[in-house]
Design a protein that fits this description.
Layout: E1 13-16, E2 27-34, E3 41-47, E4 58-60, E5 63-68, E6 75-84, E7 91-99, E8 105-106, E9 113-116, E10 121-128, E11 134-142, E12 148-153, E13 156-161, E14 167-177, E15 182-192, E16 198-201, E17 206-207, E18 210-211, E19 215-218, E20 241-247, E21 253-258, E22 265-270
Length: about 280
């Protein structure tokens, strides 16, 4: 009786090598045919990967890769592949692919923030990356000034409130998305006292015993601001009375009035120190 002896080799299998896949970055998924003999033929049976991924495998020896130049969509996807070598029937396996969101990124502040005491504040910094759903913002180190709160509004980090006292400081703020991914931004700030100056115009030659003709600038406490001197030269500047004035963004003052004699109306501009603006 003849006896036929058969020696069975290892079975053919397919493994997927671990890969770190993230939105905004190139991605490669590598499959390996374990126990393959000779050349290996690969085929994708099905895939739920987004459109930016290749639709066919790139073979290299006993392995094959599935690639994208840039992952655009995060999530969990399924890929089913088939491999066959020269001696065995095809083997099919399904793998789960995880593509992580892009890191959470917060726009850099425009510089040091400067907020006046008692003035409402609304600042925003754009948030991007992550799942796109941002659930919290907390101060992780440092502090915000009294009266200013951090929060989330859509895709923006918000700094809102009304600072209550003069101070300086810095803060690091962490933003967290719905998947737990985090991003951080650091900022510096100062709260300054408001420098209020009050202009009073009319018809007089002195104010509180000081030589001030027709216009005076007061400090916040009501005392005379001695850095602003009433004009004494220029058409109509020292004669008559002032009926109206406008403060320009540059700090210069436009005045109009009527001369003391003749009722002639005039308009002039003063520098921020009260001298006549010759321009």
């Amino acid at each position: 009786m003849a006896i036929l002896a058969l020696t069975m080799g290892p079975s053919l299998g397919i493994t997927m090598l671990p890969a770190s896949l993230r939105v905004g970055e190139p991605g490669t998924i590598t499959f390996e045919a374990v126990g393959a003999v000779g050349s290996v033929t690969w085929r994708i049976v099905s895939s739920s990967l987004p459109a930016e991924w290749d639709t066919s495998l790139t073979p290299s020896g006993t392995s094959a890769t599935l690639d994208t130049t840039e992952a655009e969509v995060f999530g969990t996807f399924m890929v089913t592949v088939t491999a066959s070598d020269e001696n065995r029937h095809p083997v099919t396996r399904t793998f789960t692919i995880l593509v992580a969101p892009a890191p959470v990124t917060i726009a850099a502040p425009p510089g040091e923030y400067s907020w006046p005491v008692g003035t409402p504040v609304t600042e925003t910094l754009a948030i991007s990356g992550g799942t796109g759903v941002y659930v919290s913002a907390i101060v992780s180190s440092g502090a915000m000034p009294d009266g200013i709160m951090v929060g989330i509004s859509g895709s923006n980090l918000t700094l809102t409130g009304t600072p209550t006292e003069k101070m300086t400081g810095s803060a690091s703020i962490i933003v967290t998305d719905s998947d737990g991914a985090q991003g951080m931004v650091s900022l510096t700030w100062k709260v300054v006292e408001v420098d209020i100056r009050i202009y009073v115009a009319g018809y007089w030659t002195s104010a509180s015993g000081a030589n001030r003709r027709h216009i005076v600038r007061l400090k916040q406490d009501g005392t005379i601001d001695t850095t602003f001197a009433s004009p004494t030269t220029g058409a109509g500047l020292s004669l008559g009375f002032y009926s109206d004035l406008v403060i320009q963004p540059s700090g210069k003052v436009i005045i109009c009035g009527v001369r003391e004699y003749g009722g002639v109306q005039y308009i002039n501009r003063l520098n921020s120190d009260g001298s006549a603006d010759g321009t």
